[in-house]
TrEMBL record:
Cofactors required: Mn(2+)
The protein's name in its UniProt record: phosphoenolpyruvate carboxykinase (GTP)
Organism: Adineta steineri
Subunit text: Monomer.
Enzyme class, broadest EC rank: lyase
Residues in Phosphoenolpyruvate carboxykinase GTP-utilising N-terminal domain copies: 39-266
GO terms for cellular component: cytosol
Single GO MF annotation: GTP binding
Alphabetical list of InterPro entries matching this protein: PEP_carboxykin_GTP_CS (IPR018091), PEP_carboxykinase_C (IPR013035), PEP_carboxykinase_GTP (IPR008209), PEP_carboxykinase_GTP_C (IPR035077), PEP_carboxykinase_GTP_N (IPR035078), PEP_carboxykinase_N (IPR008210)
Source organism superkingdom: Eukaryota
């Protein structure tokens, strides 16, 4: 007989998994690849979180974490757009911290070059394993007490491609989890590719704020600025980052893995991991060429990668805006490049519908905005959007100050390093091959920086070695992307000064060595400067969409057109060989190579490179410097 008085109860059989005494609240620990389990168990014990959450990359997961962050006040929904949020950090945690970034190897000179005595090396910082152990022993034990530990499986590059690399990031920041989901491929698919004991890059991140809190949390943004430490162990493919939640400090797939660790893997395996955008240019005849370009942080990669051409008949498509992994194809000899990322973490100030409409259109949904201003009607706002926002609009600045647009010109809505984080697939001009696991063939490599004085709009290298010299002598004005203050011109060879994971001398030699294989089709190398100033400190070049005119010249050079002439610093455009129709620019000022400037510059470059790299400076570069000196002395 049926017992009708008893209510129906559904029975769930819940197995609570634990590591030590820490419960796994989501995911099946025991089904993870063995080598992951071993490392995780150690980290869980070390960091002592309240619980562990193994991420699967699903939409439900994102929703759950987002809701939590909104509830807590770390994120605010921007009601003007779909699924987009704004975040204001602790004002002490706003950029990469280069002074606290280290490479750890047994041999010091595996990490940094033999700088001359008395010279402080700025091409990477080394710390010994024993000193680093002390630093970490002081920080890591119990660093996640009272917090959730998230386990994020991710792939840099298309999942399963032979060019891709897998990482697992542990973090106690759910803001980091949400950003990693935009910037990398987060999925439980990853575990399948780690069977058979395959290698993965171990990434540990903690904001360094265990509970109970001993310090006040500002803006619901946990961080520990006094104790920031970002350390890399390239020999064992490991990154540990402590104390910061911002950008390159905490999204470990980006600079830490895809440049510093991958750079070292690339050195070992014979390829390149570079701070470069990847784009294509199609001319009016329908011919498409791919190029890669390296500029230092906040010097124009995102803008170039998605530029809107002002020359009719040209099409630009974007493959990536920050990082390129490139290798010479063994069969064809082509240099093939992939973008290992899936999102843009772009500088917000200065971005608008005129300078970079494609970036604006990319971040109108599914995006996170950090340290920008908010309009009273739930939109984003930053310096550069003045002409697209009605005067009188009420703004809440990133520091929480309210003001009306246009009333007080001294008010700033955003931090200069404020960023948008948005999915690359939303970019209106994303290339349909942007996720091609085979990559795209690169015809030209461009280097550049912010050079207010002396440096022409474009220079083509005489040959491969001279191109590598151009990249080695790269300098640029400092920007807000890291902690440098003021606008000083700094050396930033290859735009990689903050991102190289091994001895910079070996790095330059690695580039030089690609010439030794006659099968390699070496791309032409160029140097550009959008930032030359006139005597009134105004830019001589309009930049942005008009940069297509320079790209067009570069592409025509890769086709062998006779439009270049020799100067003491390289090949420069023959007069009027760049299409300037519709522009008013002073060609002579833009292209001049002032003898006095370059005479001093080459002396300073020699002394800097020799001081920094000592005997690790490749001989070929010394020869290049001598040749440049000779050429300059011959200018009338
Ligand atoms: P990271 O993401 O830090 O690596 O920077 P990035 O190299 O991608 O720089 P981005 O394109 O975001 O540009 C940074 C700043 O430079 C923005 O404020 C732009 O407005 C400005 N900028 C970019 N291109 C040009 C240009 O052609 N001319 C001028 N004058 N400014 C530019
Ligand atoms: C850079 O600084 O070059 C960036 C921003 O691209 S961050 O991700 O913070 O490194
Ligand atoms: Mn960058």
């Amino acid at each position: 007989m049926e017992d009708v008085n008893v209510p129906f109860v559904e029975v769930h059989y819940i197995t609570i998994q634990q590591v030590g005494n820490v419960p796994i609240t989501k995911g099946d620990f025991q089904s993870l690849p063995h080598q992951v389990q071993t490392w995780l168990a150690q980290m869980i014990q070390l960091c002592a979180p309240r619980a562990v959450y193994i991420c699967d990359g699903s939409e439900e997961e994102a929703e759950m974490v987002t809701n939590k962050l909104v509830e807590r006040g770390t994120l605010t929904k921007l009601t003007k757009y779909e699924n987009s949020y704004i975040c204001w950090t602790d004002p002490r945690d706003v950029a990469r911290v280069e002074s606290k970034t280290f490479i750890v190897t047994n041999n010091k000179y595996a990490s940094i070059p033999h700088s001359r005595e008395g010279v402080k090396c700025v091409l990477g910082q080394w710390m010994s394993p024993s000193d680093m152990k002390q630093e970490l022993d002081d920080r890591l034990p119990g660093c996640m007490a009272g917090r959730m530990l998230y386990v994020i499986p991710f792939s840099m590059g298309p999942i399963g491609s032979p060019l891709s690399k897998i990482g697992v990031q542990i973090t106690d920041s759910n803001y980091v989890l949400l950003s990693m989901r935009i910037m990398t491929r987060v999925s439980s698919e990853i575990w399948k590719h780690l069977r058979h004991n395959e290698e993965f890059v171990k990434c540990l991140h903690s904001t360094g704020v265990p509970r109970p809190h001993t310090q006040k949390i500002i803006n619901n943004w946990p961080c520990n600025p006094e104790k920031i430490l970002i350390c890399h162990f390239p020999d064992i493919r490991k990154v540990i980052s402590y104390g910061s939640g911002y950008g390159g400090n905490s999204l470990l797939g980006k600079k830490c893995f895809a440049l510093r660790i991958a750079g070292r893997i690339a050195y070992d395996e014979g390829w390149l991991a570079e701070h470069m955008l990847i784009m294509s240019i199609t001319n009016p005849k329908g011919e498409e060429k791919f190029i890669a370009a390296a500029f230092p942080s906040a010097c124009g990669k995102t803008n170039l990668a998605m530029l809107t051409p002002t020359m009719p008949g040209y099409t630009v498509r974007c493959i990536g805006d920050d990082i390129a992994w490139m290798r010479f194809d063994k069969q064809t000899g082509e240099l093939r490049a992939i973008n290992p990322e899936t999102g843009f973490f772009g500088v917000a100030p200065g971005t608008n519908m005129k300078t970079n409409p494609n970036a604006i259109l990319t971040c109108l949904k599914n995006s996170i905005f950090t340290n920008v201003g908010e309009t009273a009607d739930g939109g984003f706002y930053w310096e550069g959007l003045e002409n697209e926002t009605p005067p009188g609009t009420e703004i809440i600045s990133w520091t929480g100050e309210r003001y009306k647009l246009g009333e007080d010109k001294t008010k700033k809505s955003s931090h200069p390093n404020a960023r948008f984080c948005c999915p690359a697939r939303q970019c209106p001009i994303i290339h349909d091959r942007w996720e091609d696991p085979a990559g795209v063939p690169i015809s030209a490599i461009i280097f550049g920086g912010r050079r207010p004085e002396g440096v022409p709009l474009v220079i083509e290298s005489f040959d491969w070695k001279h191109g590598i010299f151009l990249a080695s002598q790269l300098k640029s004005e400092t920007t807000a992307a890291a902690e440098h203050t003021g606008k000083q011109i700094m050396h930033d060879p290859f735009a990689m000064r903050p991102f190289v994971g091994y001895n910079f001398g070996h790095y330059i030699q690695h580039w030089l060595d690609f010439e030794k294989d006659p099968k390699n089709k070496l791309p032409k190398i160029f140097h550009v400067n959008w930032f030359r100033l006139d005597e009134n400190k105004k830019f001589l070049w309009p930049g942005f969409g008009d940069n297509i005119r320079v790209l067009d010249w570069i592409v025509r050079r890769t086709n062998g057109e006779d439009i270049a002439e020799i100067s003491s610093v390289g090949l420069i455009p023959k007069k009027d060989s760049i299409n300037l129709q519709g522009l008013i620019v002073d060609w002579d000022k833009l292209m001049s190579v002032p003898k006095d400037y370059w005479k001093d510059d080459i002396e300073e470059t020699l002394s800097w490179l020799d001081g920094q790299l000592g005997d690790d400076l490749p001989h070929d570069i010394r020869i290049q410097i001598e040749q440049q000196k000779q050429r300059i002395s011959q200018i009338n």
